[in-house]
Amino acid sequence: DGGITQSPKYLFRKEGQNVTLSCEQNLNHDAMYWYRQDPGQGLRLIYYSQIVNDFQKGDIAEGYSVSREKKESFPLTVTSAQKNPTAFYLCASSIDRGGETQYFGPGTRLLVL
Amino acid sequence: GEDVEQSLFLSVREGDSSVINCTYTDSSSTYLYWYKQEPGAGLQLLTYIFSNMDMKQDQRLTVLLNKKDKHLSLRIADTQTGDSAIYFCAESKNTGRRALTFGSGTRLQVQP
Question: Where do the DSSP E strands lie in chain A?
Fold first, then answer.
């Protein structure tokens, strides 16, 4: 079964803690993306990567970091610098750097304790 | 203003047609997309249209694109209760940054 997986489904963060959200795809897609979704709003781009070992900031990158060491994996770290991390985080991938037709994972909901 | 705008809410009766509207601002957009999101889930790609087309039909879904007015619509024929969800319009801009720009979503409620 090809697709995009995200884990965990729910994640709880304590004050001052860094947490990492996992995103894996077995679609052999070059490009991967992280979006943040707040209630009643659309998706906002955090980071994207068009190729292994390269990534770019999106519109709301402050307080987040990423890595792209493998084609199939694009983990997102929510650092303690992100003061309002409670949101639904969605990972996506697309077949090439053109970015068209992105496919999404099931999402991770991050809550602050 | 917002790059992509959608109305917030639409309510229809089961069996009727639903029309969800979207306006965008970037005339250089190459592709325009419709995604569906059910509660607590990721986004499911429904359909997309290339910017040189004005209509695309896929079973119960019809997409209309008016490039002059930068207006996109999604028509769902014979709407079912399972179609209740949030629908997002998104554009792929013809820039170096190949990510999608999303509207804020339209919540479709289907009444039995």
Answer: 4-7, 10-13, 19-25, 31-37, 43-51, 54-57, 64-66, 76-78, 87-94, 103-104, 108-112
Q: Taking CA B19 as the corner, what is the angle to CA B17 and CA B22, rounded to the nearest 5 degrees?
A: 170
What amino acid is encoded at B9 in this protein?
A: F
Summarised one tens digit per residue, pLDDT across range A55-99 is 999 999 999 999 999 999 999 999 998 989 999 999 999 987 555
Instruction: State the Cα–Cα distance between residues B105 and B103, nearest whole angstrom.
Output: 5
CA distances from B80 to B37, B47, B75, B83 (A): 15, 18, 13, 5
**Do the beta carbons of residue B94 and residue B46 sit within 8 Å?**
no
Query: Which of B4, B100, B104 is the closest to A40 by Cβ?
Result: B104
CB A88 within 8 A of CB A109: yes
pLDDT of res. A25:
97
Is B100 in contact with A104 (Cβ distance < 8 A)? Answer: no
Contact A103 B45 (CB under 8 A): yes
Asked if B104 and A41 come within 8 Å (Cβ–Cβ), the reply is yes
Phi, psi of B83 (to 5 degrees): -85, -10
